[in-house]
Amino acid sequence: MAFELRDITVRYRLYKERPTSLKETMIRLLRDRQWRYFSLFDAISKVNLRVPRGNVFGIIGSNGSGKSTLLKVLSGVLSPSSGAIIRNGSISSLIELGAGFDPELNAVENIYLHASLHRKSRAQIRDRIDHIINFAELSEFAYTPVKYYSSGMFARLGFSAAVDIDPDILLVDEILAVGDERFQEKCQGVFSRFLTKGRPLS
Amino acid sequence: MPNTITLIPYLVVQTLEYRDYLVQSVLRDLRTKYKRSILGYAWTMLHPLAMMSILAVVFSGIMRIPVQDYAIFLFCGMLPYNFFSSTSLMSLHTIRANARLFGQVPLPKYLFVLSLTCSNFFNFLVALIPLIILTLSLGRSIPLAALAFPIVVLPLLMVTIGVSLILATSNVFFEDTRHLSEVALHALYFLTPVLYRREDLPSYLVDILSVVNPLFVQIEFVRGIFFIGALPDPTSFLANLMLSLVILRLGLKIFKSSEEKFLYFI
User: Fold this and answer.
1) Which of A38, B70, B83, B249 could form a disulfide with A15 if both were Cys (CB 3.0 to 4.6 A apart)?
2) Residue B59: which residues within 8 A CB-CB, separation 6 or more?
3) What is the pLDDT of residues A104-154, one digit of tens each?
4) Domain count, chain B
5) Which domain holds residue A124?
6) Is the Cβ of A120 closer than 8 Å to some Cβ of chain B?
7) Which residues of A touch B104 (CB under 8 A)?
8) Do A104 and A191 share a domain, yes or no?
9) In a shared domain, residues A112 and A31
10) Could you tell me the pTM of the whole model?
11) Are residues A32 and A110 in the same domain?
C-alpha cells in the first residue's frame, strides 16, 4: 500500500457578515444555535482511499469537487480536519509547478531551493543540476531570473525539478495544460518510466 | 507527533534535515536587506551607530545619566534588545508572508521564525564590530569576559525564539496582535535597563521587573561582559536560563499545536 486515507474530512469555516445589531445576534443564536458568524463547509467529507504500489490512480471530478484539496491532503500540505493518512514513501507533487520558486532567482538557484525544500542537500543536487536543466531544455537560460521565463519554460523547469527528486509517490494535478506537444511527450516518457519502476502515480 | 519530552530533540533533527533550506533562507534575507540601497550591508553597522549617537547626546548631554562613556553603555544594551524586538516584530508577518510557499510544499513552519532569528542574530553579531571599534577608540579595553558571549547570549536567543513563535501564531488568528505587540514592545523598552542602569530605578520596581521581565537581567548580562567586564552571577544566570527555556518550550508548544490550522485561516 503506497498510501491510505481513512475518513478524511477537510472542513472550512466560511465567515459571513458580522451581525450588525444585537437583534441579529440574538436571532442567529436562537436559529442556528451559535452566535459565531460562520458556517461550515466540507470540501471533502469522510473520504476513504487505498492506493497500492505500482499503480496509476486517477481522480476525476467536476470543478470544486475537492480534487486539489484531496491532493493537498495527500502531499501533507493541508492537515485534514479529521481522519488519518498513512503514507509509505517519499512524495513529490506536481500540483503547482514551480512550488516554492523565487522569481528573483535564476533556474539553477531555484533548483537548489526546490531541492532544499524536499530535504535534499546541496551536494546531492549539484551533480543533477545539468541533467535537470537539459531535460527542461533551458541551458541557454539557466542563469536568467525565472521571472523572465514564459509560462512554458517555467512549467518545464518545475516539472523537471520535481521529477528529479525521484519520489516513491508522484502527485499530479492538471499541470500538463501548459507545454507543447513535444514536452508533453517527454512527460509521458517520465511517467512510463515511473510505472515500470513500480511507483504509484496519482 | 512527539510528546513533551521528545519535542526538542525531534525539532533539532528536523531542523538539521532542512539545514540547506535554512541557510538559503537566511542568506536571502541578508542579501535582500540592503539590496537597493547605496551603502548596502554597511548599514547594519552604521544604523546602530547613528541611533546610539543620537541617544547618547540626548541622555548624557540633556538628561544626564551619570555613566562614564554612556555611548558604549547604551550600545551594549541596545544591540541585544533590538535583536529581540526586531525579531519579534518581524515574526508577526512571517507566516502570512510565506503562505504561498507552504501552501504548495509541506514544510515545518517554525523554520520561518528560525530563519528570521538567525539572520537577525547575524546582524547583531556584525553590529558588535562598530561596538568594539568604538570601545577601543574611547580608550577602553575589551574585557576578557566578553569571550563568554556565546553562553551569555543563550537565554536571550531562547526567549526571542519563544516569544516570536507565540507572536507569529497569534497573528495568524488575530491580526491585531501586531498592534498590541508594537505597543507592548515599546513599553518593554522602558522596562528594560537599556537607557538606564538598575540603580536608577526604585528598588521595588527592580525586584518586580527582574522576575517578570526576563530581558531585564539578560540585557545586564550582555552589558556586563562588554562594558564592565563582569561575568553574570551564576545563580541569577541559571535562573534566567531556566525561565528562558520555559518560555521557549511554551512558544514551541503553542506554535506546534496551532500549526496545522494555519492554512485554514489564511
Assistant:
1) A38
2) B65, B70, B74, B195
3) 888 898 999 988 888 888 888 888 898 899 888 888 888 989 889 888 888
4) 1
5) 93-196
6) yes
7) 77, 93, 95-96, 99-100
8) yes
9) no
10) 0.86
11) no
Number of domains in chain A: 2
Higher pLDDT, B266 or B233: B233
Averaged pLDDT, A4-22: 78
For residues A98 and A184, membership in a common domain is answered with: yes
For residue B25, being part of any structural domain is answered with no
* B162-182 pLDDT, tens digit each: 999 999 999 998 888 899 999
Any domain includes B35? no
- What order of strands is seen across the sheet that includes strand A3-15? A38-51, A3-15, A82-87
- For residues A51 and A131, membership in a common domain is answered with no
Has residue B58 got a pLDDT over 80?
no
Residues of chain B contacting residue A79, judged by C-beta atoms under 8 Å apart: 260-261, 263
Final residue before a domain boundary, out of A59, A88, A117: A88
Domain that holds residue B165: 40-265
Q: Are residues A107 and A174 in the same domain?
A: yes
Residue in chain A closest to B260 (alpha carbons) equals: A79
Do A165 and A82 reside in the same domain of the chain? Answer: no
Are B106 and A102 inside 8 Å of each other by CB? Answer: no
Asked whether residue A44 is domain-assigned, the answer is yes
Structural domain includes residue B150: yes
Instruction: Tell which of A88, A119, A136 closes a domain.
Output: A88
Grid coordinates 541557454 are at which residue? A140
Q: State the complex-level ipTM.
A: 0.81
pLDDT in tens, B19-34: 999 999 998 888 877 6
Distance from CA of A202 to the nearest CA of B (A): 16
Rounded to a whole number of angstroms, the distance from the CA of A79 to the nearest CA of chain B is 6
Assigned domain for A201 exists: no
Q: Chain B interface residues facing chain A, Cβ-Cβ under 8 Å?
A: 17-18, 20-21, 24, 28, 101-107, 260-261, 263-264
Of A79, A112, A116, Cβ closest to residue B260: A79
CA A63 from centroid of its chain's CA atoms: 17
The whole-angstrom distance between B183's CA and the closest CA on chain A is 27
Residue A23 domain-assigned? Answer: yes
CB-nearest partner of A117 from B105, B260, B264? B105
Tell me which chain B residue has its CA closest to the CA of residue A98.
B104
